[in-house]
Structures
1.
Amino acid sequence: MPLSTRGIDAQDCNDAAPEDRAEAGDHAWDTLLELVTSRPKRAPDRKQNRSKRTEQQILNAALRVFARDGISRSRIADIAAEAGISTSTLYEYYKSKEDLAYDLPNSHLVSFFQEYRAAVVGKTSAREKLLLYLSMSADFAREHADWGRLFYLEIWPSVLVSETELRHSVDDFARIARYLIDEGVRQGEFPAGRNSYETASLLLGAVNQVIITWLLYRRPRNLTKASAEMADRVITMIANERP
Amino acid sequence: MPLSTRGIDAQDCNDAAPEDRAEAGDHAWDTLLELVTSRPKRAPDRKQNRSKRTEQQILNAALRVFARDGISRSRIADIAAEAGISTSTLYEYYKSKEDLAYDLPNSHLVSFFQEYRAAVVGKTSAREKLLLYLSMSADFAREHADWGRLFYLEIWPSVLVSETELRHSVDDFARIARYLIDEGVRQGEFPAGRNSYETASLLLGAVNQVIITWLLYRRPRNLTKASAEMADRVITMIANERP
DNA sequence: AAATAACCCGACAAAACGTCGAAAAAAATT
DNA sequence: AATTTTTTTCGACGTTTTGTCGGGTTATTT
């Protein structure tokens, strides 16, 4: 649980000190990080502690079962049993399997953004920030492989994701990459003249491909090394690209 | 229906004329193309024409319904109704919805390989072949958008694909890219010293990302142009990479 | 044209999903 | 601390979807 309750304070500095130093106090960057780490949780309307515990049990159980069987083969009854509750209780918390599946990855995703936010402090160049971002995203999937399988292999590419709340967090994922690419161009680390949207697709597509292959086949063996290499390689290519 | 019945003749040239010209008559390349265009169809044991028609109706209906509702929300009964048959008849052909969903993309995929095989004749450099391959893959998804949604957004990344027959065709997809990269290195078009597996991930990941984004959001508007640009850009980067 | 094989469907069984009202537990009120 | 009220849980039950089976229909073979 990194960073915890930083929610409010970064936002209301909007009208406060408008620093003019170009490098260090990057306003838009802070705002973006604040945004992605504070997407509101759905349905926080439970009163008793017992409920929070039950909800957590459901989430843990669902993650295990989904990762093991895939969403389509998983049964609500199995998840409820694994969570130690009755199926009807589960329906008190989520109105359907789909609802559960598409809410589930949210908390992990926010955790990832929080971890990144904490780790990126001190990095100055856009290139460093970008490399860290991509490396950390792969490492996060490795450390939370059950979540990774669910998110990268079932949720992210799904047609259904565009109808859910999760969509915003997914969009944030690309938004950060795009922001850093633009920043790199402004600071002269990357050549100008390219569509940053396309460049972001290139970067994310390449790294995600490595992650997905690892999640499916556990190859290459060392994901941390492979993804960092890939990220570094592609970033270098982009930096050296003739405009 | 491109190329139609070229199945057999290319195979029995295995023991025939072993041409030594390095460029034109590339044996391994022909063999690979032959392999990917002739993956055996599952369950060809139907005798009557009536059955072939019924099976085709099922496939067409399933493609429409899956693309419209997503696999998980689609109902067998809907597909059967759309195909103009009873549900129990559908079960004569496919033992489950999953079975149907994972067999469905096969024929289109083979068609794509066949179209590519026909179009690549005459291209000599590995770079040209690779560019054509990636461009055509995007264009094929655009022309068969229903199939594209099913294949790229639901089947390919799925955990379940690794258990199905379709896996082989999916593997073929990457194998061709890898082959062409290796060929490019041999012919000096690309610098040596890189893992061709990694380079293939980079290429496919980048282009697929463009395709997926288009399938989900219809952006960028012109997929043909965007994917060709992306492919060309990445191939150029790889060609210019310092070893 | 009779026999055999292939194909199709209605009726039924099984499994999974989802709802509801009442019981149990916790919190609030008196 | 007994009560009322609110929150949470669960078993019983209805609905939807999946999957099976035997017999009837159509095509093919002899």
2.
Amino acid sequence: MDEASFLAGYDPRDYPAVAVTVDVVALTIRDGRLCVLLVERGAQPFAGRRALPGGFARDEPLDAAAIRELSEETGLTPGEGHLERVHLEQLKTYGDPGRDPRMRVVSVAYLAFAPSLPEPTAGSDAARAYWVPVEEATDLAFDHDEVLADGLERARSKLEYTPSATAFVGTEFTIGELRQVYAAVWGEELHAGNFHRKVLSVPGFVESTGETTARGGERGGPKAKLYRAGDARLLHPALLRPTREDRVR
Amino acid sequence: MDEASFLAGYDPRDYPAVAVTVDVVALTIRDGRLCVLLVERGAQPFAGRRALPGGFARDEPLDAAAIRELSEETGLTPGEGHLERVHLEQLKTYGDPGRDPRMRVVSVAYLAFAPSLPEPTAGSDAARAYWVPVEEATDLAFDHDEVLADGLERARSKLEYTPSATAFVGTEFTIGELRQVYAAVWGEELHAGNFHRKVLSVPGFVESTGETTARGGERGGPKAKLYRAGDARLLHPALLRPTREDRVR
DNA sequence: CTAGGTTCACCTCAGATCGAGTAAGACTCA
DNA sequence: TGAGTCTTACTCGATCTGAGGTGAACCTAG
């Protein structure tokens, strides 16, 4: 960072060529299961293995690179209404020497929450991409198993104290749909009554539209009231996961 | 990430030379005030301005680069017992084009919590480094104002649900010292009685040494019991900041 | 040596919140 | 029509919270 010490101590061998890539952990919920977007690698290294979508950063902000990669891999383009509601945040940066066998690659990972998106359509990069339930997304290329694990933990934690869960559902949703998001991400059932009470008691989490669903649930039940996301950025009080003693130590 | 598409779409103009640096937001508490380690820049750009300590990543893990930079800037070396107790975690990566006027620089920022360290001694890089109360650390070089702000928010949040506060004090400490850490980082006084009750009620946060301080507080009071950090990695229940409505929206 | 102020370690109390359970009513499916 | 499902609302006891109080230990000023 300091030009003088940079020039004084500069040795090309100390600073081998570094490439910066952006990888995306894109999560969505399909059929009540938490799924991640994966691509099939066509070239070495790790040919045939699955990996997180990603690519080299160009002369653009890192966030923009993540959106671009997500757009290219899903075949969806910003401006068509699909990618607008995607929540995107930086996850972590991975830069161990040797994590890419070709060269020094520093990878900035992003975490994305998407409402249920259509299966990526054939054509361009997107043909190689598909949604996979997270528990089946193992044995990924590079250090992507670790990246995915970090992303899942971040997602589970985010749901506790931010309204990010609304990014997984449409603009209008029922409390039951929101509960299914929490159940899918946390991997455990939630008490419907308590969840209902807590969501409505958090100021700014959801606001009523005054409407209800056209019909009851698929397997019966009354018409549910519809809500949209409120203006809160943090949940007070938070919706805490059922305590798991093994997470604590 | 994919070699085929990499080679097919490769254009040197798309991928200008990228440098990867590591910057550190090192926090400590001196005289009850939260302080950050800054360096005085000697060269252009931003000559004479203050900046966060940092430098170019070498062929090493990013974490190791952060430790190395911190060691070089403070004059303390790992293995002498000073840097061992420093808590270090990755904060965020900053990569906007133009954030460094010389070239494309992607900077991985780290956050460090240190117990009260001696003032960096003269010699080598460390002569330019000193601790500054965070509220006086303004008008920094590059985008370091933003990095510092992100680091402070992360630190305040970390104290809520992890035992990181113990990284700011010695191996043995009193509940009162721990409370002063929270007060300094959060910038508000805490109810001593409630804080005492909550800290002791969180399993694994602190464990008693059975000892007490040799004498009472500086301005009187009984001898305080001594504690050391427990084995918890997360605090359940968490020590939440007093709710601030303006943080929520 | 004493008085006064400070600090630690408990304790109490009222209100909020939590998990768990119950129940009424609306609705779908067979 | 009957069985089962789902939303919404309520209750209850246990727990947690913030606010405040008490007493003993301790330092310092006078």
